[in-house]
């Protein structure tokens, strides 16, 4: 189930500053990204650059992305944040998230044609500079059928966080 991104005030800051976030991810070296450790969840390549993992700040990674760090640290109930890169011709297989206590937000950064996200029965495409918010405890999957990589900022935050 997708939720209305505008119901979460922090999404406004993310969308207003998306080009700065895009600039920071563009400065990262490919070796800074690590393969998602649970390899049964994807086909081909899914890489991440973590900034916050389950409430714990990854200092060095945050230092390399000061604008993005400031934006995510302002999110009420932040638990996890980082960049997610789905390589060309890759899929994240259908799965269910790890916690009923959080919601997930994707800020689209680099999205070639042929990419999409299905949550429950609804599929959507990312639009650069816009956020998608969803409950990842519903079955979901993502795909990149293009010849280029897809990159988003992924944020998990507590469901009990304040809404507008």
Description of the molecule:
The longest helix has 10 residues, at 18-27. The chain is globular, with a radius of gyration of 14 Å. It has a single domain (2-158), classed as Jelly Rolls. The strands form two sheets. Strands 1, 2, 4, 5, 6, 8, 11 and 13 form an eight-stranded antiparallel β-sheet that branches. A five-stranded antiparallel β-sheet has the order 3-7-12-9-10, with no helix packed on it. The mean pLDDT is 93. The two termini are 19 Å apart. Helix content is 18%, strand content 40%. By secondary structure, it is of the alpha+beta class.
Q: What's the structural blueprint in terms of helices and strands?
A:
Elements: E1 2-3, H1 10-16, H2 18-27, E2 34-35, E3 42-43, E4 46-53, E5 56-57, H3 59-63, H4 66-73, E6 78-86, E7 90-95, E8 102-110, E9 115-119, E10 122-124, E11 131-134, E12 140-144, E13 150-158
Antiparallel strand pairs: 1-11, 2-4, 3-7, 4-5, 4-6, 6-13, 7-12, 8-11, 8-13, 9-10, 9-12
């Amino acid at each position: 189930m997708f939720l209305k991104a505008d119901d979460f005030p922090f999404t406004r800051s993310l969308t207003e500053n998306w080009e700065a976030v895009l600039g920071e991810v563009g400065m990262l070296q490919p070796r800074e990204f690590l393969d998602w450790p649970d390899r049964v969840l994807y086909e081909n390549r899914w890489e991440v650059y973590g900034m916050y993992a389950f409430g714990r700040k990854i200092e060095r990674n945050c230092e390399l992305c000061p604008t993005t760090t400031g934006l995510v640290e302002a999110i009420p109930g932040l638990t996890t944040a980082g960049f997610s890169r789905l390589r060309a011709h890759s899929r994240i297989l259908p799965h269910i998230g790890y916690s009923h206590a959080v919601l997930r937000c994707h800020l689209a950064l680099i999205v070639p044609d042929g990419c999409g996200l299905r949550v429950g029965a609804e599929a959507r495409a990312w639009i650069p500079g816009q956020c998608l918010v969803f409950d990842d405890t519903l079955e979901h999957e993502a795909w990149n059928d293009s010849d280029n990589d897809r990159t988003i900022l992924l944020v998990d935050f507590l469901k009990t966080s304040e809404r507008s």
